[in-house]
Amino acid sequence: MSSLLLIVLLALAGAVVLLLLWVAGAYNGLIRLRNQVENAWSQIDVQLKRRHDLIPNLVETVKGYAAHESKTLENVIKARNMAIGAKSVGERAEAENFLTGTLKSLFAVAEAYPNLKADQNFLRLQEEVTSTENKVAYSRQFYNDSVMTFNTRRELFPTNIIANMFNFGRREFFEVKDDAQREAPQVKFS
Amino acid sequence: MWEQIQANRRRSAGLIIGMVMILLVLGYVGGELLAPGVGIIGVAVALVIWGIQMAVYASSPQSLLLQGAFAREIHKDDSPQLFNVVEEMVLASGLGFMPKIYLVEDPAPNAFAVGRKPENSGVIVTSGLLHRLNRDELQGVIAHEIGHLKNRDVQFVTLAAVMLGSVVILSEIIWRSLRLGGRGRNRSSSRGGGQAQLILLVIALLLVVTGPLLARLLYFACSRKREYLADASSAQFTRYPEGLASALEKISRTPVTVGFVSKATAPMFIVNPLAAAGGAGWFSTHPPTDERVRILRAMGGASFGAYEAAFRKTHGGALIGQQSLRDCGRVYIRAASTEGPVESHADIKFISHRAMGYLRLRCNCGLEISVPEGYDQNTIRCIRCGSVLPIPTVIAPPLLPVAPPVIPTPDATPLQYKRAGKGWESFRCACGRTIQLSPNFAAPQVRCGGCQRLIGIA
User: Fold this and answer.
1) Domains in chain A: boundaries
2) Cβ neighbours for B25, distance < 8 A, ≥ 6 positions apart
3) Of the candidates A40, A121, A148, which has its C-beta nearest B329's C-beta?
């Protein structure tokens, strides 16, 4: 009789240990995903800052060949300063979109200056700025992929129990409203 | 995506355990066969073979591989576009570290990934790849290689190759000693129990023959699966499966094959350089290229889910783990970019010459001359116009009567190089090493890679 009790107790203890192990595994998995989301978010920031740092150099180079395009150049500088000064996330997204637009028109203007287009320094900066835009887009893509994984995990049974127990909140996607809108410059140049 | 790695690890563990089992059983049977009662010694021999193979591979397979391929590491200044493509894919995959980039001068377009640890991982591309592919195609190929790194495939391939090698060696040993020792043992067994001995012999021979075969099948099946998974990752990272599909077509249609490939390195390439077109079967490391292209073109989106659907339709069976499929949502394919080839043919030649330490100078007649490191004359004759050109080198700066305050350097003789222009420049240090200056170089000094001396740049 007592040996049967012992077996039952041992089995219970075993089940509890297994359960605890599973809880620890699920919890760690969620933590890892949350860290990945946060990491991805900071990568977007790094790339945006890189873009801001490239702009003064680019403007200086263009000025050397196309000084009377000062209106376009001023717009780029203005957009950059707006993006740096932006406080809220919404404000910031808008300023960055505006900056993308002004840069597009700057490169369009550069097409009219063959000497500028032959300048090695300008070509290098153009490649860097274009690639940085790609990098912003790809960091955002990875952020959204990570958020998708994290949100699915915290809503699916059985990990949702752990997620609710330890208050893992839902993460928001970083949406660019519409690609067409992102492409179009939002200001008119006279 | 994290799940993908975990599922891969589990599968790899399964494969390795399977191979270990084959190895141990083979060792035991082999021992029993040679002399009854010494099966344990056979197992020990098997383990020793495995240990030696493991040690050989762990010591420095990567540097050997890179040397064998004459791969040269290149830096961002050499090919900013290639670096940007890699950086973009590192961000898209969340890999978390930047692999080194190596260039191999080879007209055959191909690429592969190396590195069992993040700090020594690298992506190798051939010059043929760089000037044949446009940016979208190159991105697809790079994303495939990053996918291999992300899924830890290099580790797996190395380990599996070690296991396979051990099994093959062991069965070879058993086979040979059976043939050598066969006559002596026949005499002793003819006395009695000959029939039982014979049956045992047949079973053992079967094992010796099928063991390596089984190990090989396991290995190749896993290797092919990894290729499909890397293709799926590439589509997910680039959001543009057509890029990789069209790159694969271009690579497989190029008649030249990579010059530095061997059977051991073949599984690491994006397209198996040894396989004849379409000749992919049970014993091939890569799935048939046209099937990979068909799957990529059949994708209705860019997610793992879309790849899985296309895979099931074209190939049949399941590929990607349940967990990963649940985690991915609907992902749209992006529009194509308009950018052409990343590097021109001539540019790639300069890049690889720079990476190999060639000193480049332009003659007045316009001819570009490459001088290899180790050329010990101070002048060189232009082969076109015959004029004698001085080799650019360092000079001791002239002592001015009113010397500007110089920062004291620990070197006995401060050396200087006077820049001729703004572009790429190379000159010879006093120790003989070639030093390359990129157009972006702006520092007042440069450190020689050979003698570690600081050289002032004026």
Assistant:
1) 2-183
2) B207, B211
3) A148
Task: Quickly state the pLDDT bin for A20 (edges 50, 70, 90).
Answer: very high
The domain limits of chain B are 2-62+155-223, 64-144+237-327, 357-457
**Which distant-in-sequence residues (6+ apart) come within 8 Å of B34 by Cβ?**
B42, B174, B177, B178, B181, B185
Complex-level ipTM: 0.81
Tell me the pLDDT tens digit for each residue of B225-268: 888 889 999 999 999 999 999 999 988 887 666 666 655 556 66
pLDDT digits (tens, 9 = 90+) for B373-402: 778 888 888 888 888 888 888 777 655 555
Q: What is the DSSP string of B190-230?
A: TTS-HHHHHHHHHHHHHHHHHHHHHHHHHHHHHHHHHHHHH
Residue entry with tokens 């090493």: B433
Query: Which residues of B are tagged catalytic?
Result: 145
Helices (H), B328-409: 345-355
For residue B165, give the amino acid letter: G
- Architecture of the domain spanning A2-183: Up-down Bundle (1.20)
Report whether B220 contacts B160 (CB < 8 A).
no
Which residues in chain A are contacts of B84 at CB distance < 8 A? Answer: 127-128, 131, 134-135
Give yes or no for residue B314 having a pLDDT over 60.
Answer: yes
Q: Which position has the token pair 């873009």? A: A51
Q: Which CATH number is correct for B64-144+237-327, 3.40.640.10, 3.30.2010.10, 3.30.1370.60, 2.130.10.150?
A: 3.30.2010.10
Residue A134 tokens read as 């790609």
Query: Which chain B residue shows the shortest CA-CA distance from A140?
Result: B92
Please report the residues numbered 17 through 36 in chain A whose beta carbons come closer than 8 angstroms to any beta carbon of chain B.
29, 32-33, 36
* Mutation for A interface: B3, B10, B90, B91, most A CBs within 10 A: B91
Q: Would you say B48 and A95 are in contact if contact means Cβ atoms under 8 Å apart?
A: no
- Rounded mean pLDDT of chain A? 83
Phi-psi group of B278: left, alpha or beta (phi > 0 → left; psi -120 to 50 → alpha; rest → beta) = left
Distance CA B12, CA B217 (A): 14
Residues 6+ apart with CB under 8 A from B245: B140, B292, B293, B296, B297
How close is the nearest chain B Cα to the Cα of A42, in Å?
A: 11
3-state SS class at B381: strand
Q: Stretch B350-364: mean pLDDT, rounded?
A: 78
